[in-house]
Design goal:
CATH class of the largest domain: Alpha Beta
Bound molecules: 5-amino-5-deoxy-1-O-phosphono-D-mannitol
Distance between the termini: 29 Å
Number of helices: 20
Strand order of the largest sheet: 3-2-4-1-10-9-11-15
């Protein structure tokens, strides 16, 4: 999410900072800004919209050897000029650019306000500028000021700080959000992605979590958050610029699949507490408001609709409230019977999907309470919903949604657990087990991703399949639907997604040698029935790819290929572990078939027409 670049050296600093920033525009593009030293004072320019707006604003302004820039993917506060980075303190003594999320920013903001600080933005980042400035009131040591300020924050950050009183340096720090220093001759570069600086230098130092650094023209000093000094040896990067933009991967899709542990962690951050409590600081609803919802309506398209089906399963299971899930495009024709105490949930990565927006407007006209589960901050759906629960997937470039799906279901899990808790519909034990399971989600996903080689082997064996059934029972059937959509849209494999029990009512007629049945089977209560379904396929000489949990021994005996996902407790969370395997399988089939993976034919990332 977001992009940072910086430069300190004899060349035109703003030009370099903005030119390198352009290379990171794909990471976030709702506003951009630059801080620079003009020889006399520290200045900030920032603008909502694309980097080109900022470049136009900067015009011919020259900077004397020092600039830091930022392109934003909004997380806190809508995309507008005040919320763009750099953020400063009131006096403009300190300018900060930040990637990541400060979890305890509300708390810090209240404390700072009580001490007389005035805020100009809705961002979490602004607290950093005030905290650092506060330290500098009694200190002449900018590194120490940053270090002491960071000791007060919780969350993820890659930051770069400029100081009006110390124009010879940039101080940077990293925790869970990457930063790279680029070494030149008498000049130093800075970026959140190596990509940005490759045309200037390939000699880089990668910061690790807990590292801080002071960057000067011809000097870099590194230290840790506890103040101790460290050395990190420079390395040489030989990626092409294009490969680097994709983090060295061949496609954005695989990069985004692999980013899922981090995206899910960011979505949980600040909401699911270590003690198991769940809170949504951005949603202004009291417990009694949440308790009054008797029914839930979920409206979405495509992948987001499939996430909604997972929501239905878990809300019904945990909350014991009736849930209806609609395709947005069908909502207006369905005449749904809604109850006045309905919570209408709209799920969308882009926040701009026309069908979903139209359904939202109908619900608003009818007076229903609306909640968006949206990735793009400040998007139309986010703005028009009464409340928004943002997923924190970061920009998703590939048309095929991957990390958007896993963060959407993560948000739904949290919401389901939260509502179950306030309504007392789960026992303490069930609630604790589920929140513990959810905390493990990032590491579960990482373990599933370790199965990439096996998914690739299965793809190699099955890449020529003429037809693929995607089958499951219960919650597994919903995950299978998303797996089918992935392979259909990027590998152009005809699929039929189907509740496994429905096969014998018609679709089984299509099974013949060469046809593949992908089964998702993780639930103890459907196991025996699935065993029967596997045998039905094998008896007709179809080929079976089974996605099941580690430890399962009987089902694999009926399968030609098996991919094991980590075992998840409670089982309702298993989609988080199985979906990465289906995504990886689809990706490798598409790759082996030579498909245009990131931009599949006939499709668009954001569908803004009804
Ligand atoms: O931006 P949205 O989440 O509202 O988009 C909805 C669908 O168009 C989207 O999920 C689509 O199905 C995916 N790109 C498929 O991978």
């Amino acid at each position: 999410m977001c992009g940072i670049t910086g430069y300190i050296g004899p060349k035109a600093a703003i030009e370099i900072a903005l030119e390198t920033l352009k290379r990171l525009e794909y990471r976030g593009y709702d506003s951009a800004g630059v801080a620079f030293w003009d020889g006399q004072s520290l200045n900030v320019l920032k603008r909502a919209g694309k980097i080109s707006n900022l470049i136009e604003m900067a015009g011919d302004i020259r900077a004397d050897g020092l600039a830091v820039s930022h392109t934003r993917w909004a997380t806190h506060g809508v995309p507008n000029d005040p919320n763009a980075h750099p953020q400063t303190d009131e006096e403009g003594q300190v300018a900060v650019v930040h990637n990541g999320i400060i979890e305890n920013y509300l708390e810090l903001r209240h404390e700072l306000s009580a001490r007389g600080h005035r805020f100009n933005s809705d961002t979490d980042t602004e607290v950093l500028a005030h905290l650092i400035e506060e330290q500098l009131e009694t200190s002449d040591n900018p590194e120490e000021a940053v270090r002491l300020a960071l000791q007060q924050v919780r969350g993820s950050y890659g930051i770069a700080v400029l100081f009006a009183r110390f124009p010879d340096r940039i101080v940077i720090a990293r925790n869970d959000s990457p930063l790279v220093i680029g070494l030149g001759e008498g000049e130093t570069y800075l970026a959140s992605d190596i990509t940005a600086m490759l045309s200037y230098t390939r000699k880089v130092i990668l910061l690790e979590n807990g590292d801080l650094a002071t960057i000067k023209r011809d000097e870099v000093r590194l230290y840790r958050l506890d103040g101790s000094s460290i050395e990190r040896p420079p390395m040489h990067v030989d990626w092409s610029a294009e490969a680097a933009e994709k983090g060295g991967h061949e496609h954005f899709m695989i990069k985004e699949i692999l980013e899922q542990p981090e995206a899910v962690r960011d979505t949980l951050r600040g909401r699911l507490k270590a003690n198991g409590g769940i809170e949504f600081p951005d949603i202004k609803l009291e417990v009694e408001d949440w308790q009054r919802y008797r029914r839930i309506l979920i409206v979405a398209c495509g992948t987001a609709y499939h996430a909604g089906l997972i929501g239905k399963h878990i809300f019904e299971k945990w909350l014991r409230r009736p849930v209806e899930v609609y395709h947005s495009s069908e909502f207006r024709y369905g005449d749904p019977i809604l109850h006045p105490q309905t919570l209408a949930i709209f799920i969308s990565q882009s926040g701009e999907t026309a069908d979903t927006l139209a359904a939202l407007r109908l619900c608003r006209e009818a007076g229903y309470s609306t909640l968006g589960i949206v990735n793009a901050v400040g998007s139309s759906i986010a703005r028009e919903c009464d409340h928004v629960l943002y997923t924190q997937a970061g920009p998703e470039i590939s048309v095929a949604s991957t990390k958007a799906y896993s963060t959407q279901i993560t948000a739904l899990y949290m919401l389901g657990l939260f509502l179950s808790n306030v309504n007392g519909t789960l026992s303490m034990q069930q609630y604790t087990d589920a929140t513990r399971g959810l905390m493990q989600a990032p590491s579960l996903i990482s373990r599933s991703l370790e199965m990439e080689a096996q998914a690739r082997q299965a793809a190699e064996a099955l890449k020529e399949m003429p037809l693929a059934f995607y089958l499951g029972r219960g919650i597994d059937a919903y995950v299978a639907m998303e797996g089918a959509l992935k392979i259909k849209e990027i590998a152009y494999v005809p699929t039929q997604e189907c509740a496994a029990g429905e096969m014998k009512h018609g679709p089984l007629a299509l099974v013949e040698p060469g046809v593949v049945a992908v089964f998702v089977a993780t639930q103890a209560r459907t196991r025996e029935k699935i065993l029967g379904n596997l045998k039905e396929i094998k008896a007709r000489r179809g080929t079976v790819l089974l996605i099941t949990s580690e430890g399962e021994t009987d089902l694999p005996q009926e399968a030609d290929y098996t991919l094991f996902a980590p075992k998840v407790e409670p089982e309702a969370l298993s989609p988080l572990a199985t979906i990465p395997l289906l995504q990886l399988f689809a990706y490798h089939v598409a790759r082996l078939r030579g498909c245009e993976i990131d931009q599949p034919r006939n499709l668009a990332k954001s569908v803004t027409v009804e």
